[in-house]
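Q: I have two molecules that I believe assemble together. Could you output structure tokens for the complex as a whole instead of separate predictions?
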Amino acid sequence: MTPATPAEVGSPTTTREGGSYRDPSGFVYRRDGVLYRQIAPSFAGDWDAFEASGLRARLVEEAILVGHEEAPLELAAAGPVHRVIRPEPIPFISYPYEWTFSQLKDAALLTLRAQVLALERGMTLKDASAYNVQFLGGRPILIDSLSFERATPGAPWVAYRQFCEHFLAPLALMSRVDIRLGALQRGYLDGIPLDLAARLLPGRTRFGLGLGAHIHLHARAQRRYADRPAGGDAAPGETDARGRMNPARQAALIDSLARTVRGLDWRPAGTEWADYAENTSYDDAATRAKEALVARSLEALGGGVVWDLGANTGRYSRIAADLGRAVIAFDSDPAAAERHYRTLRSEGRTDTLPLVMDLVDPSPAVGWSGSERHSLMERCDADVLLALALVHHLAIGRNVPLPMLASFLAELGAGLIIEFVPKQDAMVGRLLASRRDVFPDYTIEGFRAAFDGPFEVLDETPIDGTVRTLFRYRRRERAARGEAPGLSG
Amino acid sequence: MHLPLAYIDPGSGSLIIQVAIATLVSIPVIFRAQVARGVRAIRRDKGPATETMPRTDDPGHAG
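A: Yes, here they are, computed for all two components at once.
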């Protein structure tokens, strides 16, 4: 089946997504800003079986897979086409190296659940990439509708290795070694090599049935059979494991992986900022005054999307969410973001996405041609930035000059609610306690001067019961262009 | 039997060890299924009064 008039490749309105090139079954592209997925004729049999088996309907019903609408074939991007679909949009694309421990764990269990349902219907997941999962309404969901193919009876799971490298290895390292090893995912986009994971994990994990088998034995087998085709002496594409994966073994394998994943836990305690909100030096009255002021400022700025920078465990994200805003809550501390995610999950909230992000080192563009995974700056769509109790950590804790900070924030969002924390504040005192004060410009006058460049100040209010000041700003450039209808000032 | 070539490399060692691990971890599943089958048989022998429990076991997963 071919479209009557497919769009020209490279036409100005059609751009292929940078990360969509591995799987020949189809690809994702944008046409006039709308996201489409084109399905290749070579995948027609599997796609039709996916529909006919009822698997797709079941996955969508269980909110495991994003829904989609059929689109006219004329909207195909290029070349031969079987179908064109318009997937449900994901408001904000996030990546596994930005997720908290439990977000990655939930994504892993979601992937295994999808494989269980697929096997029950004679289908199988042909890949298990963590990048096929996104967060929608606070919960993980698979976004690649082309990940399911007809199962070959008796065949092993071809995505087993990828599952272990994308999910099990990082979870095991974060749980059993150090939570900060989650950052390895940014360097290993194809998953963490199992030999590396095996080397980093404590020796005792060799003796557990889960990690011992799926990481350690798995890594040894990879090394041992590295130069052999899958079938040993058989032709490429055949396997000496043929016929041995009966349904009981397939189910037992997935069950074993799920048990192993569930058995990995991490208690978010003891890292730097997880208790920060509770340890601030201000009393309840001052906190309430700040909350009221933040709420008023959010209402005044309007907009639909709020990025809470340095969100900690989400005290102020909640105020924005309660006002109907979609919130992305960033924090550099994996413990704070983890606690935030667990709270939201237990409450069933759908309006806030916590992510781990160091604003001094925001996610760069990575992968093939530097366009496979987008940088944070490429993904910014915030109407309003919330930067509370943040300035001193960046300006003093990390030596970022205030004018550079102001320019950076102006890149991220059109509206800004920002708290200035002066040197008289106890928290700044702690930051300066063991170092030389090389910040003569870190004063409220210096702050005003720095932010007056890229921003227009709308309000400046001291926070009752504190020495701090809350500023409300509107970005000058955008205001000048009149492109911020949501910002009422 | 022919294993379809995947678009990702499933890894020779990964396929081989997967079958070994699956065989190992399916043993308790098979064992539990056999025990359940035995229990059912004993209950049947005891008469119809004890046969009213609904079964939820999936024989397809019992191996």
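A: One point stands out. The helical segments of chain B are 12-45.
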